[in-house]
User: Fold these one by one.
Assistant:
Number 1:
Amino acid sequence: MKTEKLMIAGLKEDIESINKAVRVLSYSLKKCTTISVKASYTMEELDAFENLTSRFARTSDIYTQKIMKGIILILREDAKTFLDRANLFEKLNITDAEELKLIRDLRNEISHEYRLSDVSEIFESVLEYSVKLLRIIDKTIVFVQDKGWFDDGDADLRQVHQTVLKLSHTPEPEDG
């Protein structure tokens, strides 16, 4: 069994990975928010949205497969399936389990290209859930800091938090 110190070091490496992913996702999100969802796109606009969807999928993978698993390992919780992890994160007041499930579903749609016929619908969902994913990551950073696993001045944690703060002026899309 890994010692807690080694598990925390592994989580720190995963935080460094997600920090890089958050930066490029945020860049694409800003670019695509300016383009917005519409009926047709230029090749450059399609390229920008393709980058966004890819970066969303990569960031959500790092979060669900590395960050969540790392936290659960450190806490020594028994949450083997994604649904177990999502429900545990809801109990820990990090995020709503349903939001995590929807993020995972959208990631699967992107990765498996289930609905290529209606790219605008996927683009709209990715715009919405990229903001939600970034906010979940930020809440997770706060959780990790509150646990005392990292120094409050840890640069990688601050970078993720600052990136999300810059996007905080971006309102979450309304349901409807």
Note: The two ends are 48 Å apart (CA to CA).
Number 2:
Amino acid sequence: MMTKYLLLILLVGLSVTALAQADSTAYQLQRNKVNALLAQRSSSFGQYQQSLNQKTGIFGMQTKRDIKHSNEILRQITLHDNKIFRELKVLMEYKEMQVQQVQNTAQINNERVQDFTVAIKKLNDRNKALTLRAEQAEQKLTLFYYIAAVMALVFIVTILVLAGRIAKLKKVKRFS
């Protein structure tokens, strides 16, 4: 009976582990995606820095076109930042989901442990009751054997006494 419970716990544990690994893989992929976006942002920011230093105008000044180019790069960085925030939100949702799954698994396992504890207590109580009944039955059987032995002795003694009396009566009849 206990083996069945242990096998059940093992099976549930393995399925939870497989589910956790799948979630961990999704979390890791999302993390890699965020890291790639951050690397792209760093590259774009480097381009922005270069565009600020680029001065193609007369007397080494920035032209309107240079400023527009820098502003366009900055706008792309802002759009890229928005993508990063969206992906970070997804990443945080994965993390929250993982935390929730761990909490749910812990709660389920605690409930199972409590159920197993109750079942074990019931089985122990039943075992004690059956052991007590077996001991009482054994005591009754022992008492029965004693009574049967005493009755057998009484029966044998009665037969011997009667046999003796019958023998005496036969002797008395012979002589009479």
Note: The chain has two helices and no strands.
